[in-house]
Every structure is written in structure tokens, then in C-alpha cells.
Amino acid sequence: MTRITALNPDETTGKTKELFNAVNAKLGVIPNMMRTMGNAPALLEGYLSLSGILGKGKLGGKTGELLALAIAESNSCDYCLSAHTFIGTNLVKLDSETITNARHGASSNEKTAAILTFAKTLVNKGGLVNDADVAAVKSAQVSDEEISEIVGHVALNILTNYFNNTANTTIDFPVVHTFAAAEN
């Protein structure tokens, strides 16, 4: 059962209505996460802004999706795993092996593997990485700009993971469970 109500877009007004209209114009739908975030228009606007800006960053959309999958798996967020598996498969055209590898923080590409490993290290260490962690990602030719964006992606995805885990948002994508949940 959900803990925070997903708003009906037809019943919203003000800033929430404005944000919902923008999301609907872009996506053709307002996903339940955004309908739920709409209870706090400042949160929804902040999420949309950071997500939009990072999507235009140096790491690009494909790496952003891979990061979202790795981070969602680390934070046991079935909503985000479901959403990003759908987006990765249907919009970014990732194959199932790439998606599974990303959830484990792995990739056949050395640079991408270093990016995902660093992101999972950030999550696991609560952001308290050390010199060796940063040196490891830099050794894979990841630039300071890219490292900075990785931190941004981790922050964005922790926001959505924690929000959806708190709200127990109803999943409106084909459902994907974390590996730990699937094993039980």
C-alpha cells in the first residue's frame, strides 16, 4: 500500500499543475513517481531540473541509465529498477545482459565499468570515498567533469530511490525486483 498519495493530474492546480503539464507534454504520461512528488512542487521541480541538466551532461543518457540501474539495485528500489529497465530497454535500446551487468555495477567497457564501480562505491560508503577510490576511477580515463557528474547522478538517484521507497510508490512499469528480493 502506498504511503504518500499519487495526485490525480486532473485535480491539481498551481505549480503542480504546471509541472504535470510539462511532464505530460514531454513524456505523454505522468508517471506515478512524479504524481506522488507533486505533493511537494518544490521537490518535483528540483528533481525535473537536476534530471534534465544531467541528461545533457558529458556522461550522456546511456551512461545515466546504467548509473540509475546500478544505484537502484544498491538501494533496493523496485520502482526505479522497473522504470529504468523499461527506459533502458525501450528508449536507450540496452540489451538485457547490459542491464543485468549494470545492476551489478559491471560493464564490458572498461571506462563504463569504472564509472559504475565508483557510483556503487559512493553509495556503499555514503559519499565518503578515499584517494584510492578516486584514483581508481581516474585510471580508467574518467575526467574530473565526469566524476563530478557521477556524484550528481548518485545524488539524483538516491533522491528518487529514497522517495519511492518511502512513498511505496505504485509501480507503473513492468515490475522488476532487486536481485535480493528475487532470490527470496
Automatic annotation (TrEMBL):
Superkingdom of origin: Bacteria
Alphabetically ordered keywords of this record: Oxidoreductase, Peroxidase
Lineage of producing organism: Bacteria, Pseudomonadati, Bacteroidota, Flavobacteriia, Flavobacteriales
A GO term for molecular function: peroxiredoxin activity
Signal peptide (residue range): none
Domain named Carboxymuconolactone decarboxylase-like: residues: 41-85
Organism: Flavobacterium pallidum
Protein known as: Peroxidase
Residue intervals passing through the bilayer: none
InterPro entries: AhpD-like (IPR029032), AhpD_core (IPR004675), CMD-like (IPR003779)
Pfam families associated with the record: CMD
